[in-house]
Amino acid sequence: MSDINKVVLAYSGGLDTSIILKWLQDVYQCEVVTFTADLGQGEELEPARKKAEMLGIKEIYIEDLREEFVRDYVFPMFRANALYEGVYLLGTSIARPLISKRQIEIAAETGADAVCHGATGKGNDQVRFELGYYALNPEIKVISPWREWDLNSRTKLIDYAEKHQIPIAKDKRGEAPFSVDANLLHISAEGKVLEDPAEEAPEYIYSRSVSPEEAPDKPTYIEVGFEKGDAVSIDGVPMSPATLLTKLNEYGGANGIGRLDLVENRFVGMKSRGVYETPGGTILLSAHRGIESLTLDRGAAHLKDELMPRYAELLYNGFWWSPEREMLQALIDKSQECVTGSVRLKLYKGSATVVGRSSPYSLYSEEHVTFEEDTVYDQRDAQGFIKLNALRLRLLQARNNRIK
Prior knowledge:
Argininosuccinate synthetase, chain A, domain 2; Rossmann fold; alpha/beta
C-alpha cells in the first residue's frame, strides 16, 4: 500500500466518506484530496469543507457542476428517451460519469496517483465509477474501501468514528431507514425498510413530490420549447439547462409526478428494489417524445426506439465513456437536427400528458390526413400497396394449404 502517495476521494462529508477519509490516512498513509460535486442534491456543501479541514485536508475541491451535469449528460441522455427496463430514468447512473471525469482531472491537477469512491461491493456504482476512471486514465490506481476493510456494520462504523473523533450528528447515530442518492435529476431510496418488495413504500420515503392524491384538483398547463432535441424554455421564457430542470422539478413535485417503485436487475447480477422520484425528468421525457412525434420521420423514430434499450443499458452498466455509447450518441444527435418546436402539457395528479405540439419542421400534413375531400392523396393507390405487401402472405398460405 506504500506505493499510493496521494488519492482523490469523492467526498460528501457524510459519515461513510468521512470515515473513508480517515481510513485512507491510517491504512494507506497517503495524502488525501477531497472532491465534492454539487449536482443539485439540495444539500449545503460548506459543512463538507469544514469537516475536511478538521481532518487535516489541505486540498479541498467543492464545485458547482449543475449546468455541466444537465447540459452534457442529462440532456444527451434525454435525446435518446433512455429508460432502463422500460421505466427507470437513470438518475443515479448518469451522474457517475461526470464525477469520475472530475476525479481523474483533479488527480492530474494535483499529482495524485489514485482515486477513491465510497460505493459498496454489492452495487452498480462501484462498476460505474471504476469503468469511468479506467476509461479516462488507464494507469490510475483505484481504492474501494468497502471491498477492503472490515467495517461491515453500522456499529463498527460508529465505533471507528468515535475512536478517531470524527463528528457524528445525533440523527445519524441510529440505523438509517434507507439509503439515498440525490441529484438535480432525481432522488432514490434503497435498502432497509424497502428490502421487502411486497410491502408498499411508506409515504415518508418521498421528499420531492406530493402524493398524487394530495396534488391539486385543478390541472397545471405548461409549454416546453425545444431546439435540436434539447429543452430551452418554459412558457416562452428561455432558461439554462439546470434552471429549466429545476423549474420542471417544481412543477412535477407539486403535481405528484415522477414516482417509481421498481425491482430492477443490477449489473452485478442481483435484483434490487428502488423507489425513485424524477418529477422534472418525467415531464421532460413526455415533452421530448411529443415534439419527436411531430418532427421525426417514421423510420428514424422507430430505429431510435429499437436502439434505446441498448443505449439505456450501456448507461446503467457504466459504459458512458465506451465507443459504442459514443457511436449511438452520434446517431441519436443526428436524428435531433429538426426536433425543434414547442409542446404543451397538462400536469394533473401524477400524470404529464401532451395536449398540443407545434414545430416549424413538422412532418404532419393535415391536407394528407384529413377525412374531408383532398387533392393530394389518391386513395386508389392503397390497393396496389396492400396487394404487394400481402403477396408473400398469400404465397405462404397457398403453400400451407397444399401440404395439409
